[in-house]
Amino acid sequence: MEAIDARRPVDAARIYLRAFNWPIALGHRYRPRAGCTCENVECPTPGAHPLPGPFTPIPADDIEATLDTAPGAGIIAACAAFDALVMPRWLGLATMVPLDRVSPVPFIDCGAYCALLVLPSTGRYALGEQPPAAVTLRTSAQQWVALPPTHGTRWDPPPWQEQTGVRVPLLHGGDAGRHMLAALNHVGA
Which residues contact 54 (CB under 8 A, 6 or more apart)? Predict the structure, then answer.
């Protein structure tokens, strides 16, 4: 795999499409001093959410031209090749501490919340019999996450080994869920 600079939207989008085969689309744009193009002055995720209407994947050959027409646009991935466990940041960080000892798990830090990516169709196993109210499961091509370098998002860690660029295998949702539920029980939430 080539060297990855996930801070450049075109480079990041190429990796997501070509190396990971993740369907991606443009999201709203973040405009400094003007906010999100959704026009909600209190937008909780400026530039980091989908455009209205159906999810329209960017063809691999059109990445550069598409991103050039919308500077600052979010990169939105359909949750087709992974499930996303979306939770408050404090819970994500508490979950990642023990998970880092087991295996790297792709983790998108979005400020107030985060998303852990696990194998597709396994996220439900992370929630247990009584799903925690603080955690939302996003699964299937109809749901989405904003990927770095979308405004306000960053990888920690990314879905590739930073030294080699080799893909990190996704964990089963049940494996990630054990650590997440232990973190919830620890804080008494």
Answer: none
CA-to-CA distance for 66 and 176, rounded, in angstroms?
A: 35
- For residue 66, give every residue at least 6 positions away whose Cβ sits within 8 Å of its Cβ, in sequence order, or none: 26, 58
**From CA 74, how far away is CA 59, in angstroms rounded?**
16
Report how far residue 96's alpha carbon sits from residue 104's, in angstroms, rounded to the nearest whole number.
9
Q: Could you give the CA distance from residue 72 to residue 69 in angstroms, rounded to a whole number? A: 10
Burial of 55 (0-12, 13-18, 19+ CB in 10 A): middle
The predicted model gives 106-116 an average pLDDT of 95
- Model pTM score: 0.93
What mean pLDDT is predicted for residues 90-101? Answer: 93
Q: Who contacts 185 (Cβ-Cβ below 8 Å, separation ≥6)?
A: none
Amino acid at 143: Q
- Euclidean distance between CA atoms 160 and 20, whole angstroms: 10
Q: Answer yes or no: is pLDDT of 46 > 80.
A: yes
Question: Is 106:170 a contact under the CB 8 Å cutoff?
Answer: yes
pLDDT of res. 73:
94
Mean pLDDT, rounded, for 8-20: 91
